[in-house]
Amino acid sequence: AAAGARAAVPPPPPPPPGPRVVRTDEGAVDGLTRCERCGSTEISLNVATGRLRCSYCRYEWQGPSALATSDLNSPIGELSGVVIGSGSADIIPSTDEVLTFKCSACGAEVVIDTNESTQARCHWCRNTLSMNQQVPNGAVPDMVLPFRVPKDDAVARIAEFVKKRTFFAHPVFKREFNPENVMGVYLPYMVVDVNARASLAGQGEHQTRSYTVKSGDSRRRVYDADVYDVVRDFTVHIDDLTVESSRARLDKDASRNTNNIINSILPFDVENAVRYDSNYLSGFHSERRDSNVADLTPVATVQAQDVARHAANQTLEFYDRGVRWDHERVDVVGQRWVSAYLPVWLYSYQQRKSNGRSFLHYVAVNARTGETMGSVPVNQPKLLAVAGVVQVVGTILFALIMLTGG
Ligand SMILES: [Zn+2]
Ligand SMILES: [Zn+2]
Question: Do residues 98 and 114 lie in contact, with contact meaning Cβ atoms separated by under 8 Å?
């Protein structure tokens, strides 16, 4: 290299801008939510309709759609940088989790432990107070997808699921199976849109002819192929990728079982989610989000890479002898994160194993679609006996074939 031919040092790249935050609790009110017809604060979800209902006068209404705001609904192709709903902001660990509200009906101080609930009843006037404004501890997400599958429907689906597997099921499990123990839980998720640019380059082979060559006594098959440089450059749009945002569920070792079960009852119709309102949670359990966008970004990135590779593969029919990528690159141009509570009916069963360890089994029902999946503790001796029978049958068949063949 010639002296003096020094390239100019490029200026350092600008620091990545922080996420653009879209407020999703604009106008949300803490305290009493009153029925607009009779003024009662006894409000809960009517699962049969997916709407809120006043327990006194039976008036029903539906909260505003969560994704209707233009900033959360703009085309994925126009996304750039990171956009998040305000309910998806990073969790601040020092935040007080026990908050005090003044009851606007009687003036008493009411305490809500946000670890447990976002509602509490005033012990003086018995009105229900809700927390709807977001606090940075993950307890109030951007949106909630209301339960739509009623409990008795979920119980029937779980009973059916277990019944189909009773032959192999552990007798203790069969004896203790009680689908009435089903629990309705809102699980925390992030709903992610990704706008990515994919660029793949490599070489592909297309066969032109094949023929047999004779040399002496031996013959061999010869294939002629043309080699091409293959380049694919395209954008990838991923809509409503759902990522679990509870660390317990992301921990693959501790709960691989649960994870797979919850993943196999996807998808949820998140486009029908409504703006968060604590009254949708009344009578249900909920699990608070404890992961931030940065913790979950690798999951979304891997998904974008998988989608890109799959999309590229769909265009390679011509290269019947395969394509080898030398260069693969997926750049996430824009991403949008919205936190959500999604509804699941859960039946859990703690199996105590002979070695003293216990193992949690679940049957889960997607409370929007009714999709059901789970694990049932297996009766090991019975499973082994069946395996043994198959092996014996296999041996007999093999022997018969030998006889007829010989
Ligand atoms: Zn009413
Ligand atoms: Zn009160």
Answer: yes
Phi–psi pair at 375, nearest 5 degrees: -130, 145
pLDDT of residue 303: 84
Tell me how far the alpha carbon of residue 145 lies from the centroid of ligand 1, in angstroms: 23
Ligand (nearest to CA of 52): 1
Is 1 within the bounds of a domain?
no
Q: What is the pLDDT of residue 95?
A: 66
CA of 32 to the centre of ligand 2 (A): 9
Q: With respect to residue 405, please indicate whether it lies within any of the assigned structural domains.
A: no
59 Cα: distance to centroid of ligand 1 (angstroms): 5
Ligand nearest to the CA of 125: 2
Alpha carbon of 30 to ligand 1 centroid (Å): 19
The total number of structural domains in the chain stands at: 1
Cα–ligand 1 centroid distance for 43 (angstroms): 8
Task: Answer whether residue 335 is part of any domain.
Answer: yes
Task: Give the max Cα distance, the chain.
Answer: 105
Q: Taking a C-beta distance cutoff of 8 angstroms, is the pair 109, 98 a contact?
A: no
Express each pLDDT in 109-137 by its tens digit. 888 888 778 888 888 888 888 888 887 77
How many C-alpha atoms does 28 have within 13 Å on its Cβ side? 26
**In angstroms, what CA-CA distances link 322 with 228, 313, 330?**
11, 10, 21
| Percentage of the chain modeled with pLDDT above 90 | 41
* 223 located within any domain: no
Ligand 1 (ion): which residues have CB within 5 A? Answer: 35, 37-38, 40, 54, 56-57, 59
Q: Which ligand is nearest to the CA of 57?
A: 1
Judged against a pLDDT cut of 90, whether residue 274 lies above it is answered with yes
Ligand having the closest approach to the CA of 101: 2
Task: Kindly give the distance from the C-alpha atom of residue 100 to the centroid of ligand 2, in angstroms, as a whole number.
Answer: 13
CA of 35 to the centre of ligand 2 (A): 16
Centre of ligand 1 to C-alpha 55, Å, is 7
For residue 390, give the DSSP letter.
H
Tokens of 279: 């009254």
Distance in angstroms (rounded) separating the CA atoms of residues 254 and 155 = 27
* Domain extent at residue 118: 20-157+181-195+233-344
Residue 395 has pLDDT above 90, yes or no: no
Tokens of residue 208, six digits: 């032109």
Tokens of 365: 């029902």
